[in-house]
Design brief:
alpha+beta, 383 residues, 8 helices, six-stranded mixed barrel, four-stranded antiparallel β-sheet, 17% helix
């Protein structure tokens, strides 16, 4: 599993670097200029929290530490989910958050959330943080984001599940204070669906998609962290499901680690969407033969999403893939299944049966990994 995870990751790293430093189009994590923020008159709020102006937010953007190589944060792994430790507020409140390249915001449960899914996880308490600020103190942030209502309420829908919450600002740090954003905008969840959040080991989600998908300029964590730490404008992820291996799964902010490469060089693929890590998938092969997916339309749009361990696709694509696999439903014979290969440009990335069959409570399921996706027709989402 280690090898193929690395190969898929190299593709993912290639996407990140290509979008920032080469290929077309080009996107920077801190694309929006926040150095010249207009000062707004804000009504006084009856709150114990001190007032912090929009101009001071701009000063945060201008203040940078000495240039660093890169920041490395080790990840936890559980049943295909990869998550990391962060802290919010002062004194620090600890949370585990899923790394999700399919979304762009930080969300964690609030102490005010009474949903069962919230009660099963650690919850953020703004009253216990001296660095917490209500979003209403920053009218410019509300005005520039149509997704944030005037009362600070936010609603977010995922492919599975949905949440509602309140936009909040507080100090957010990578565990052990390796890097901190003094005033980061995130969503404190007031209500969330039981599925899938109730059964997840992590508390919240840290979105790593492009800034244009985030609520606004202040809610994109990587952009904010890059500004205050002065790290290079890129990130990479190494995923390894062998917990006892010397090389632990890691998030690298501001660089890549050549010692983790499977091949000597990276493959670069251009991003073709302004909001997502989306690239062109040329074709899909099973057992060395084309399945007839994507070739007819000049390729399919594929999203590289670390927030899921499933390969999700249009139902007609799924039917073709399962038919090509010739899987009769006997889990004792999964080792005899053919490899699945995904072609990007001229590069093939292959999965052996041991890498696309999921073990669940003693059973192995092929179709669990290849999930039908009705909403995004024509797109394939890769873990």
């Amino acid at each position: 599993m280690k090898t193929i995870v690395c190969v898929l990751l190299l593709f993912f790293i290639g996407c990140g670097i290509a979008s920032l430093h080469g290929g077309a189009p080009r996107y920077r994590l801190n694309k929006r200029d926040t150095k010249h923020v207009t000062r707004h008159r804000v009504a006084h709020l009856n709150s114990r929290h001190s007032y912090l102006s929009d101009q001071e937010l701009a000063e945060d953007d201008d203040s940078k530490e000495e240039q660093k190589g890169y920041l490395m944060e080790h990840l936890h792994h559980n049943h295909g989910d990869y998550f990391m430790d962060i802290t919010i507020g002062e004194p620090a409140q600890h949370f585990k958050v899923l790394l999700d390249t399919g979304s762009s915001n930080l969300i964690v449960p609030s102490i005010h959330c009474k949903s069962r899914a919230c009660l099963l996880h650690r919850r953020y308490n703004p009253d216990k943080s001296k660095t917490y600020r209500p979003i209403q103190q920053y009218q410019s942030l509300i005005e520039e984001s149509p997704r944030i209502k005037r009362n600070g309420k936010v609603a977010i829908k995922f492919q599975t599940g949905k949440i509602t919450g309140e936009a909040s600002i507080d100090k957010v740090c990578i565990e052990d204070q390796k890097g901190c954003v003094p005033h980061h905008l995130f969503v404190a969840i007031n209500k969330e669906s039981e599925h899938p959040f109730a059964n997840l080991e992590f508390d919240g989600i840290l979105g790593l998609s492009l800034p244009e998908q985030s609520l606004n300029r202040r809610s994109h964590f990587l952009s904010n962290l890059q500004k205050v730490t002065n790290t290079e404008n890129l990130f990479s992820i190494y995923l390894n499901n062998q917990e006892k291996h010397d090389n632990r799964s890691s998030l690298l902010i501001g660089g890549v680690e050549p010692s983790l490469f499977v091949e000597k060089t990276l493959n670069y693929f251009p991003i073709n969407d302004k909001k997502r890590w989306q690239v062109k998938l040329t074709s899909v092969h099973v057992g060395g033969k084309s399945v007839g997916i994507c070739e007819d339309n000049g390729g399919c749009n594929a999203i590289v999403d670390t927030g899921t361990y499933s390969i999700a696709a249009n139902p007609k694509f799924v039917v073709k893939m399962l038919k090509a696999l010739k899987f009769a439903g006997n889990c004792d014979q999964t080792e005899e299944l053919p490899p699945i290969s995904f072609k990007f440009g001229d590069v093939h990335y292959s999965l052996d049966p041991s890498e696309y069959v999921i073990h669940t409570k003693g059973n192995r399921k092929v179709d669990k990994l290849i999930t039908k996706l009705n909403r995004r027709r024509g797109k394939v989402i890769l873990p």
